[in-house]
Amino acid sequence: xxxxxxxxxxxxxxxxxxxxxxxxxxxxxxxxxxxxxxxxxxxxxxxxxxxxxxxxxxxxxxxxxxxxxxxxxxxxxxxxxxxxxxxxxxxxxxxxxxxxxxxxxxxxxxxxxxxxxxxxxxxxxxxxxxxxxxxxxxxxxxxxxxxxxxxxxxxxxxxxxxxxxxxxxxxxxxxxxxxxxxxxxxxxxxxxxxxxxxxxxxxxxxxxxxxxxxxxxxxxxxxxxxxxxxxxxxxxxxxxxxxxxxxxxxxxxxxxxxxx
Length: 260
Known about the structure:
Elements: H1 4-23, H2 37-47, E1 54-58, H3 72-78, E2 86-91, E3 104-107, E4 121-127, H4 138-148, E5 149-160, H5 165-171, H6 175-185, H7 204-210, E6 215-221, H8 232-244, E7 252-258
Parallel strand pairs: 1-2, 1-4, 2-3, 4-5
Antiparallel strand pairs: 5-7, 6-7
Helix pairs in contact: 2-3
């Protein structure tokens, strides 16, 4: 019975993959759709890196991507540690100490300092992390990220739009029920990969204020709605909503900040 969660996760992943292939036939050519947010984000991250780059994975966690059934191209894009100079990670969760993709991992306090010197990193990555930062910590987080970046370095983040369909849906569910709801939508989602949401760094106004001293490149993106698991009607409804939604209300923000 110990492997039951893994069997459930594999089955759920297969169902999502089958639904994606039916709704987006181009996935057969390379394993990703034309709307793939993972490819969109990490393609741009890779374009900011070179073999001498030193990278901080902010909110690295256990490195859940290492255990997911990613397509080879997704895995190649994400495994930047294989070709840059060095990738280290920090997180408020002790599981970061078990993340094998990192050259070094450190535990931090929420809203606490990043334990690295000024101007250490060429790029800082925060993939679906900003939505978990509380209002009392938002400015500290922004300032700390920019402090450890080298001049001209980039902060690259992917996070839900507070006013997009994902943000609105997540905020409608109390945090104490968040894990239960996501488990219903995504049967293979592990509880340790679900965290409380705050949405204090998730509007254009928030980001412009928090990074006012730096160059902000911000745009909305709508990817295939994997957040809804294998529920085909939900995918169809989300597709329609995305087509009708103005860009400022897109489900996801792609955030790139260059240190001034």
